[in-house]
């Protein structure tokens, strides 16, 4: 066996939060690092590998002397910085921009503090890995990747070592850890015996990860002694304490050809895509709020001299920490989620405050004429494309329908009063739909108590029907479910059977749902309690339907807008059913169906086999319609959920998984014990139904999904002079297949970063227009490419394409 080699990777898997709180994880990081440093003093051959920049920052701030020792060992090459990310996150649920920030802050921290960056991505315990990670890793300075889950029983792969490739062509050399990422025994022989079999099957070198883990600990004295003893035996392979970097260097230079794999690495712990709705909704909101605030803060600095906030990085670090796989996945103890809410709340507060400073600096500089009969409402569109957006806001004094609304030129805008969030006299919410400029604003003018208030016909509604010029909805009077979603323009019925069904699913699995891939044991559908017309107006009409199952209730408000080609559904849940799931089901009326899911900064096509799939904010079923030989589809987008499945002809959105907190198989629940369930109680979210001719690419589903999650901002202004016109655009990308996804100040504070990605697997050119910096540039996109450009403040410097680390 001496012609074979085991690279012994001394590590300690550190869960900073799981069955304990982060404060305990904090202490365990220090204890583990101290132990690793002590082993280095005892044995000159010992090498240690550890990821997660967050841990190093903890030690730097809390124990500078230990941090100095670590820096010395890193310099010697005996302490390997792996991972390059802030933490080992869940690798499905974070947004594309959140994955970018993991590398941006992790790699830049390593470079600043240690003079080097990680070259190996390292997520050994994450519960599956989205298919766009190779591109994100590669553009964050990492050429290799180490993972363990899914295990071979969950995902067949072409080899233990392979090239993992994204749809854009980026690839990283990838290694799936055999068996486990840590060792519990003192003697390592039983662990090495497992790998001898794989070496005999043809591999010349493998990595074996050893050291006590999860709650930290790391390699023990007995582990190291055992390695030396085993290495002296002829029946054992060469065993050297090494780094992942050296392993991958050897593998790439050994002359062998390794297979390529394109796609995601799934499925492990399918329940984690949905369990604990609160943490997943807070994550979505925090990500979106920070990105939105950074964009407007960049504009406000250039246009108005508003200082760019210094606390975005700290806010992002809190979000990134909460994306640790045992936090965001929903598998930690209840008190850990109180801590998580503090961090998400901090991030959202920073984002909200910064956003307000930015847009009010801009709105105060708009030239608005004095007119005591008029209230100016400045509406900001945070998306870098123009389009029809839903706007609603509280207006004091709006107490009757004798009002009118115009755009900045005086053209009438259809508007309606809807119920105020307050229960007082003299106040309503104002609702309207308007075409807003790309990453820009417009002043709308509200006139109260006027004699010439417009009277526009309402969107057609009864207690069983909703209809506009494009769509007609019909609800079954007995069940309360949608029995028809009819596309009038295409003359096609979208639904095969009743849709919007609220199916209660039995789920007696543990929190992770280990070794479970489908959730299809249906207990029954929720039953209609009542159905009524909630709103009837010129902008939208709405039917409210309430449903019941045992002691649980769900309200679905189906909203149809005069000027929009999709259905909006607001969902309110009060759930009290232990060990259940709730799914919303929409069966589609077409054949040769192709399921597609959004993944971070991309998409993936999967099978309609009923298995639970992770996704971002939208999923789609497209096929050939049964009535006509035309391509047709239905997309569903939402603002809080990440778990979906498509089963033959049915689209299913998983609303919740009401498991016991941190229940890990094989622990059996005891009948006489009371447990806390993760999704008991109240929650709200919104989803939209987007019927479309052609594919989802033809329907701008990516944009519609973002508009559901990030709504226009409003400021009720006053009259003042200013240098800005009453309508303006600060940023746009002229392209039908690429979208801008983030705008921020560069980390080096010498310019603005604009990030965009190609959404439709099409190569092409796009024109980036940045009026607020007086810049314009033509960009070339390859299919599915994430592109980042830097616009220096110094106009003598050209626009530069940079990687995700801004280098």
UniProtKB/TrEMBL annotation:
**SUPFAM superfamilies xref list:** Families 57/38 glycoside transferase middle domain, Galactose mutarotase-like, Glycoside hydrolase/deacetylase
Q: What is its EC number?
A: 3.2.1.170
Q: Which Pfam families match?
A: Alpha-mann_mid (PF09261), Glyco_hydro_38C (PF07748), Glyco_hydro_38N (PF01074)
| InterPro entries tied to this protein | Gal_mutarotase_sf_dom, Glyco_hydro/deAcase_b/a-brl, Glyco_hydro_38_C, Glyco_hydro_38_cen, Glyco_hydro_38_cen_sf, Glyco_hydro_38_N, Glyco_hydro_38_N_sf, Glyco_hydro_57/38_cen_sf
Keywords attached to this Swiss-Prot or TrEMBL record, sorted alphabetically, are:
Glycosidase, Hydrolase, Metal-binding
Q: Does the keyword Hydrolase apply?
A: yes
Molecular-function annotations in GO? alpha-mannosidase activity; carbohydrate binding; mannosylglycerate hydrolase activity; metal ion binding
Q: Which residues form a coiled coil?
A: none
All residue ranges annotated as the Glycoside hydrolase family 38 central domain in the record:
267-344
Q: Which GO terms describe its biological process?
A: mannose metabolic process; oligosaccharide catabolic process
Query: CDD domains per the record?
Result: GH38N_AMII_ER_cytosolic
Which family does this protein fall into?
Belongs to the glycosyl hydrolase 38 family.
Name of the protein described by the UniProt record: Mannosylglycerate hydrolase
Organism equals: Eisenbergiella tayi
């Amino acid at each position: 066996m001496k012609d074979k080699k085991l690279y012994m990777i001394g590590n300690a898997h550190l869960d900073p939060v799981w069955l304990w709180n982060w404060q305990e994880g904090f202490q365990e990081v220090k204890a583990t690092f101290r132990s690793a440093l002590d082993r280095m003093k005892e044995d000159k051959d010992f090498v240690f590998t550890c990821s997660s920049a967050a841990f190093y920052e903890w030690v730097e701030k809390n124990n500078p002397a230990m941090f100095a020792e670590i820096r010395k060992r890193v310099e010697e090459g005996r302490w390997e910085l792996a991972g390059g990310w802030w933490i080992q996150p869940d690798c499905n649920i974070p947004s594309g921009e959140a994955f970018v920030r993991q590398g941006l802050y992790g790699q830049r921290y390593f470079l600043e503090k240690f003079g080097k960056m990680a070259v190996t991505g390292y997520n050994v315990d994450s519960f599956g890995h989205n298919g766009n990670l190779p591109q994100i890793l590669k553009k964050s300075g990492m050429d290799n990747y180490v993972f363990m889950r899914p295990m071979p029983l969950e995902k067949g792969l072409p080899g233990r070592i392979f090239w993992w490739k994204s749809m854009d062509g980026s690839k990283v050399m990838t290694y799936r850890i055999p068996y486990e990422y840590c060792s519990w025994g003192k003697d390592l022989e039983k662990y090495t015996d497992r790998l001898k079999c794989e070496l005999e099957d043809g591999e010349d070198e493998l990595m074996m990860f050893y050291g006590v883990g999860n709650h930290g600990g790391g390699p023990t004295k007995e582990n190291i002694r055992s390695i030396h003893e085993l290495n002296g035996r002829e029946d054992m392979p060469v065993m050297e304490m090494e780094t992942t970097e050296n392993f991958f260097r050897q593998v790439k230079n050994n002359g062998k050809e390794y297979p390529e794999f394109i796609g995601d690495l799934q499925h492990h712990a399918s329940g984690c895509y949905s369990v604990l709705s609160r943490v997943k909704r807070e994550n979505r909101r925090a990500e979106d709020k920070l990105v939105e605030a950074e964009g407007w803060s960049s504009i406000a600095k250039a246009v108005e001299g508003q200082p760019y906030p210094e606390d975005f990085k700290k806010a992002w670090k809190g979000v990134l920490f909460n994306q640790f796989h045992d936090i965001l996945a929903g598998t930690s103890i209840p008190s850990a989620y109180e801590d998580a809410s503090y961090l998400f709340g901090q991030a959202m507060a920073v984002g909200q405050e910064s956003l307000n400073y930015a847009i009010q600096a801009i709105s105060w500089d708009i030239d608005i004429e004095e007119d005591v009969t008029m209230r100016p409402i400045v509406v900001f569109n945070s998306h870098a494309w123009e389009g029809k957006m839903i706007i609603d806001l509280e207006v004091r004094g709006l107490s009757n329908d004798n009002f009118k609304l115009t755009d900045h030129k005086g053209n009438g805008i259809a508007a309606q009063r809807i119920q105020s969030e307050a229960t007082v006299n003299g106040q309503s919410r104002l609702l309207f739909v308007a075409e807003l400029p790309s990453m820009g604003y417009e002043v709308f003018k509200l006139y109260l108590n006027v004699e010439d208030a417009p009277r526009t016909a309402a969107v057609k509604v009864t207690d069983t029907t909703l209809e506009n010029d494009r769509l007609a909805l019909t609800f079954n009077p007995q069940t309360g479910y949608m029995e028809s979603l009819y596309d009038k323009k295409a003359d096609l019925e979208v639904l095969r059977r009743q849709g919007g069904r609220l199916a209660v699913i039995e789920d007696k699995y543990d929190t992770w749902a280990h070794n479970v891939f489908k959730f299809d044991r249906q207990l029954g559908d929720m039953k209609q309690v009542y159905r009524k017309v909630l709103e009837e107006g010129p902008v939208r009409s709405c039917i409210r339907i309430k449903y019941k199952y045992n002691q649980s209730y769900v309200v679905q408000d189906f909203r149809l807008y005069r000027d929009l080609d999709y259905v909006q559904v607001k969902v309110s849940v009060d759930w009290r059913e232990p060990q259940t799931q709730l799914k919303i089901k929409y069966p589609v009326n077409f054949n040769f169906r192709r399921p597609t899911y959004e993944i971070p900064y991309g998409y993936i096509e999967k099978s309609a086999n009923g298995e639970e799939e992770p996704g971002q904010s939208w999923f789609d079923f497209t096929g050939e319609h049964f009535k006509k030989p035309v391509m047709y589809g239905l997309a569903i987008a939402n603002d809080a959920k990440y778990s979906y499945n498509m089963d033959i002809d049915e689209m299913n959105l998983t609303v919740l998984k009401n498991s016991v907190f941190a229940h890990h198989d094989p622990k059996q629940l005891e009948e006489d014990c009371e447990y806390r369930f993760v999704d008991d109680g109240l929650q709200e979210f919104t989803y939209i139904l987007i019927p479309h001719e052609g594919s989802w690419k033809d329907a701008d589903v990516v944009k519609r999904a973002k508009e559901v999650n990030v709504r226009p901002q409003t400021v009720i202004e006053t009259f003042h002079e200013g240098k800005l016109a009453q309508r303006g655009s600060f940023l746009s990308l002229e392209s039908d297949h690429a979208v801008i996804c983030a705008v921020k100040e560069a980390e080096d504070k010498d310019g603005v970063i604009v990030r965009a990605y190609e959404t439709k697997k099409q190569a092409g050119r796009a024109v980036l227009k940045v009026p607020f910096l007086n810049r314009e540039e033509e960009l070339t996109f390859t299919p599915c490419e994430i592109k980042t450009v830097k616009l220096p403040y110094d106009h003598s410097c050209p626009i530069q394409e940079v990687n995700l680390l801004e280098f």
